Amino acid sequence: MPAARRFPLQLIGAFFALYVIWGSTYLAIRIGIESWPPLMMAGVRFLIAGSLMYGFMRWRGAPAPTAVQWRSAAMIGFLLLACGNGGVTLAEHSGVASGVAALAVATVPLFTLLFGYFWGARNTRLEWAGIALGLVGIGMLNLGSNLQASPMGAAMVIFAAAAWAFGSVWSRHLPLPVGAMASAAEMLAAGAMLLAASLLSGERMTEMPTAAGWGALLYLVFFGSIIAFSAYMYLLKNVRPAAATSYAYVNPAVAVMLGIAFAGESIGFEECLAMAVIISAVVLIGLPQWRKQKPA
After folding, report:
1. How far is it, in rounded angstroms, from Cα 287 to Cα 71?
2. Whole-model pTM?
3. What CA–CA distance (Å, rounded) separates 271 from 165?
4. pLDDT per position as a tens digit, 200-238
5. What is the DSSP letter of 295?
6. Phi, psi of 159 (to 5 degrees)
7. 80 φ, ψ to 5°?
8. Residue ranges covered by each domain of the chain
9. Phi, psi of 154 (to 5 degrees)
């Protein structure tokens, strides 16, 4: 079989989007919050992205979500996007480095296995070892100077990872719209919630965003929310789940390098050691999935 057919360009592009684009969104958030209030920026991001996706899907002939599907999408959007992504945005606004935020979010697979256990999933010994090692890595990460300097940011980013994982597991048991329409509905609901939270918390624009602030918002809308998510959905259908979720141990490295190169961030020895431990834990969790054979 020719190499192009074994590893088509679509697959290469999808992995590039997942590894590089999702990894770079942490730096884009860091740049954006210098001009935008954090909750307002996250709300505008998802409201625009959700509107564009919803309009496109309806134009393609996808049916509008039912009332029950809207309610389910709102609950999952609250957990994944309002709490998950909104929490990361608030953590970076409180001083957490973008690379450290990405490293904390890499613990999502650990929380996913833990929450899955309460829904009847049974983990292997290797997966439990990965969970234990990952929890050690979280403890080491919180000993680093970056998160110690911002206890609220540390709590926020760990909460964001747990909320994303809980929403991911719960979404399998809820009646959501089919395909990309689910993402559109979740983004619309989360965008409205984040803007409401922004208003209630008293966030106000004191001056117009800079060109960099507008650029960061547009990057997050089109690349972070639409292109990268579409790539993730494509990979879920065409590769093993462990390969599709491998962004969890690639994004931190990308975010750290970009943060050091473009934002003047620095990562201490404790954070580097925690990165090695957490990434090793995620790899351990992924090994049983890689070993599973595709059904005949």
Report:
1. 35
2. 0.82
3. 22
4. 999 999 899 999 999 999 999 999 998 887 788 777 667
5. P
6. -60, -40
7. -75, -50
8. 9-291
9. -60, -50
